[in-house]
Specification:
heterodimer, A: four-stranded antiparallel β-sheet, B: mainly alpha, membrane (chain A), ATP-binding (chain A), ABC transporter ATP-binding protein (chain A), Siderophore_ABC-ATPase (chain A)
């Protein structure tokens, strides 16, 4: 039945749009297959579970607490998305977990031990962060930048072991930036650059990945491409914690949602349970309807149209 | 951890070009080699594993050769002229012509070695601060640390009236460190912003220079002349007795600076990324600052303030090696040594203190740098 196939129904292969995107920047199909298949085998063996827990923690800037007495447990092996309005404390939370900010009270536990008790490099071997703002030095090549992710594994006399080289090669393959290897980071497009930074964090070979608004500043195609990549990483055994702005992306890709407001966790759980019209209204003060995503069946937030009186 | 399948030297040039990028298949291994886009040598042997950029290695080789050639020429230059052959004989053969040996070994070699060590020390100091401030203008001679060292040394020389090398060196170190502390405190507001640090440093440096001038005016003309000659930055009149301690301290600082290179290079990615990669940011910055100030103070105590080598040498080295960071100790140090030896060679020809030569050449470079920074910022 020809008309049926034209409709954007559930029969359409869902990956069609996303997979064709990397082909523009890198090689043909190879890029797509590398993304989906490669990371599973080599990286999964290295990964060990690293549960992350925040216990009764208070943190903020300059004695102004953003969050007080916060408790949160990141489920092992989950793709957790933290959502909430601007200045709700979600990035602060991520910064505290990544040790960029010390809690003034309470603690962050990594593998059951307070994160403050670890040596810096030891934390960096278990937990990687894709920062919100990052600076690539002028004239640095892609391979050079990705290699910087090996820092916690290196010593002054052992800066480029075969393990380092393998990790960097695998990270670049997983993010389809191998072809860009020798190019300068300044010359790349925004989407390519973000994938290079993801590769740098992957080269760190940590079971836990923290992503601070990874899709901001990217166009929709590159956002989806990156989220698909994160899904692949999640499937290959990584635990992901991402601050996401787009509720529909969060609901579609995450396995666990944490909704925050005013420094407090309002709700957490699987997207299908958490993402309701009431919650969105409570957290964002946005009147909306939540309908099933026609592609995946996950909750989709549709803001209500404002009624305007015609003069 | 130390398992090495091949305990031998691997030399890979443009490795990723070699394995054919095969078609996509589920069993395909990702390429094991990383292509850096430029020829790279990899050394994995004796428990070490290092990656050396070929261009950087070649540049370092050429710089070393240039320093050696210029050094031999310098040793032959002066009121008694010697050919390079005579210089080499005097250097290597203890039984050679005693007059030539006296001139080369006792009179001129200390001066040359001072130029080498001071040039290298200034360049490393500049590289550290330019990396810390992420700005080519953030070198110790611009942000007032040299002025601080100079003021400290002047106080010791003029007010305490001593010409003791160790006393001057101590004064210079204290002056430099105190200036660094004052500049950091004044520039600190919700973190250390590089541009604010540079502006505050320039202001503090200007203040210290006028303080030193005031000090010069308040003492006897003879003392002032002595201090002024020293203040122009001169390599003449230095002998082996000052050289020993200078080289010893330099070697210690060289090792310390090597240890700070990796964390400081990571900090160039931004604090967040660096901390997430396991760098202790404040500790690394403190270590870099202390080593940088000490290197500047070492030079100032020995030969007086020599401007612009710290500013220019790391930048020249970075352009020669086409590196992504100014913080590459070996090329920067070799460039600094070459620049100062060349400046001293020129200074001897025109009979001026070497500091005057570096100011003249460096001033033009600074003007160009400012013009270019302004042009790219718009």
């Amino acid at each position: 039945m020809p008309p049926k196939t034209d409709q954007p129904g559930p029969n359409r292969p869902p990956k069609a749009g996303a997979v064709s995107e990397p082909a523009q920047t890198t090689g043909p199909n190879r890029a797509a297959t590398t993304v989906t298949d490669q990371p599973t085998a080599p990286t999964a063996a290295v990964l060990r579970p690293a549960p992350l827990e925040i216990r009764d923690a208070t943190f903020g800037y300059a004695r102004r607490p953003v969050s007080e007495h916060l408790d949160l447990r990141i489920p092992e092996g989950s793709f957790t998305a933290i959502i909430g309005p601007n200045a709700c404390g979600k990035s602060t939370l991520l910064r505290a977990v990544a040790r960029l900010l010390a809690p003034t009270a309470g603690q962050v536990l990594l593998d059951g031990r307070s994160i403050a008790e670890y040596r810096s490099k030891e934390v960096a071997r278990r937990l990687g962060l894709l920062p919100q703002t990052s600076l690539a030095p002028d004239g640095i090549s892609v391979a050079e930048l990705v290699s910087r992710g090996r820092y916690p594994h290196q010593k002054i006399t052992r800066q480029w072991t075969s393990d380092d080289e393998r990790a960097v090669a695998e990270a670049m393959a997983a993010t389809s930036v191998t072809e860009l290897s020798g190019r300068l980071v300044d010359e790349l497009s925004g989407g390519q650059r973000q994938r290079v930074w993801v590769a740098m964090v992957l080269a760190q070979q940590t079971p836990l990945l923290l992503l601070d608004e990874p899709t901001t500043f990217l166009d929709i195609a590159h956002q989806i491409e990156l989220l698909e990549l994160f899904t692949d990483l999640h499937r290959s055994g990584h635990t992901l914690v991402a601050v996401l702005h787009d509720l529909n992306h969060a609901a579609r890709y995450a396995t666990h949602l944490v909704a925050m407001r005013d420094g407090r966790v309002i709700a957490e759980g699987p997207p299908a349970e958490v993402m309701t019209a009431d919650l969105v209204h409570e957290v964002f003060e946005l009147p909306c309807r939540v309908v099933p995503d026609p592609e995946t069946g996950t909750p989709m937030v549709v803001p209500l149209a404002r009624r305007r009186d015609t003069p | 951890m130390s398992t090495h399948p091949t305990q031998e030297r691997e030399t890979v040039v443009n490795p990723a070009r070699n394995p054919a990028p095969g078609p996509a298949s589920a069993t395909e291994q990702p390429p094991l080699y990383v292509d850096f886009g430029r020829p790279t040598w990899i050394w994995r042997r004796l428990g070490t594993a290092l990656r050396v950029d070929r261009r950087t290695a070649l540049v370092c080789g050429v710089l070393t050769a240039a320093v050696l050639v210029l050094g031999v020429l310098t040793l032959g230059t002066g009121s008694i002229s010697l050919t390079p052959a005579q210089v080499l004989t005097a250097l290597t053969d203890p039984g050679s012509d005693r007059r030539a040996r006296l001139v080369v070994m006792d009179w001129r070699l200390p001066r040359l070695l001072f130029a080498l060590v001071c040039g290298a020390a200034l360049a490393i100091s500049g590289a550290l601060f330019q990396s810390l401030t992420k700005n080519p203008l953030g070198s110790p001679d611009i942000i007032g640390f040299s002025s601080g060292s100079y003021a400290g040394a002047s106080v010791v020389m003029l007010l305490l009236g001593t010409a003791n090398y160790l006393a001057i060196a101590t004064g210079s170190l204290i002056g430099g460190a105190a200036t660094a502390l004052v500049v950091y405190l004044l520039a600190y507001r919700h973190g250390l912003h590089p541009f604010r640090l540079i502006i505050v440093g320039i202001a503090v440096g200007a203040g210290l220079s006028s303080l030193t001038s005031m000090l010069l005016l308040s003492v006897s003309p003879q003392q002032a002349m002595l201090a002024a000659t020293w203040a122009a930055g001169s390599l003449s009149g230095l002998g082996f007795e000052q050289l020993g301690p200078t080289i010893a301290v330099f070697l210690v600082l060289l090792i310390c600076s090597t240890a700070t290179v990796r964390p400081l290079t990571q900090l160039e990615l931004g604090d967040d990324a660096a901390v997430a990669l396991g760098v202790r940011a404040n500790r690394a910055r403190l270590a870099g600052t202390v080593v940088g100030v000490a290197l500047t103070a070492l030079v100032t105590a020995a030969v007086g303030p020599i401007a612009f080598v710290a500013l220019a040498a790391p930048q020249i080295a970075q352009r020669l090696t086409r590196s992504s960071t100014t913080l590459r100790i070996v090329p920067a140090a070799l460039t600094g040594a070459l620049v100062l030896v060349a400046a001293d060679f020129a200074a001897q020809r025109v009979e001026l203190p070497v500091g005057v030569v570096t100011v003249c050449v460096g001033g033009a470079y600074l003007a160009w740098l400012l013009a270019r920074q302004y042009a790219t910022r718009r």
